[in-house]
Amino acid sequence: MPEKDTRLEKLALELFRRETSLVLTEFLVCVLVTTTSILGNVFVLFALYKNPRLRKPSNFYIISRTMSDITFAVAGMTLVCVTSFAGRWIFGPTLCWFQASVATMLGTASWVNMALIAVNRLLKVVYPNMHRKLVSARTIFISIFAAWSFTGVIPLSFYIFGVKNIFHPGHQLCLFDFGTASYTLIALIAIFETFLPYKVIFISYFKVWRFIKSHKKASNVYLASKRRRYKT
């Protein structure tokens, strides 16, 4: 038997044989985290709805990210909570594939939305003229649709290329088994799902920080020269 399967069997046995106190603790923590995630994101949507000043196209990105977090909490984390209480996966292979797909898609969607927010902030702060020309409600909707389409392609590509999903008892949820994926597919997913969003976020906020720093320095120089003129 492969070492990986042996390790998963040991974890599954440990999950099933937990003490009652540990089962209740993990279950209650899971319910608390899931409830907090749902309520917190609902409050964000409520604030955007109630405050007219926040009803602007750029905040559609925040709505998109909030919806991805709510959907994952409802469709993914609830299954984790039940599994934690039951001590095993009880929902069958179809829902196992669904949970693995939801976790992959919505986890990526959250990062891609954060990258879109970062790019929007970069254009607005550093390149305001370009922001006025390029950014509108229409282009924002198009970028959000493209982001969700991209993230939806990822689990679909796993299905097409025969990537298997497994229940991982250590994480208490279903995941895709990258051991059954080709190296080419793994490399593409690593680049487009992880590396590019992180890089876009880092570069965008770094440029915003550098612009604000230089602007603050120039303002200080101008104020200092102005004060010197007043003294003379």
Describe the protein's architecture and organization:
Helix 4 (92-125) runs parallel beside helix 7. The protein has helices at 3-16, 20-50, 60-86, 92-125, 128-134, 137-160, 183-231; strands spanning 165-168, 173-176. The relative contact order is 0.10. The chain is mainly alpha-helical. The protein has a two-stranded antiparallel sheet. Helices cover 80% and strands 3% of the residues.
Short descriptors:
G-protein coupled receptor; receptor; membrane; mainly alpha; elongated; 3% strand; 7 helices; 232 residues; 80% helix; two-stranded antiparallel ribbon; transmembrane; GPCR_opsins
Strand and helix map with partners:
Blueprint: H1 3-16, H2 20-50, H3 60-86, H4 92-125, H5 128-134, H6 137-160, E1 165-168, E2 173-176, H7 183-231
Antiparallel strand pairs: 1-2
Organism: Porites evermanni
Keywords: G-protein coupled receptor, Membrane, Receptor, Transducer, Transmembrane, Transmembrane helix
Protein name: G-protein coupled receptors family 1 profile domain-containing protein
Low-confidence parts: none
Strand order of the largest sheet: 1-2
Largest sheet: 2 strands, antiparallel
Helix fraction?
over 70%
Overall pLDDT level: 88
Question: Strand portion, in percent?
Answer: under 5%
Count all strands and give the number: 2
Cα shape: elongated
N-to-C span: 87 Å
Report the order of strands and helices: HHHHHHEEH
Tell me the radius of gyration. 23 Å
Describe the structure in brief:
By secondary structure, this protein is mainly alpha-helical. 80% of the residues lie in helices and 3% in strands. It has helices at 3-16, 20-50, 60-86, 92-125, 128-134, 137-160, 183-231, and strands at 165-168, 173-176.
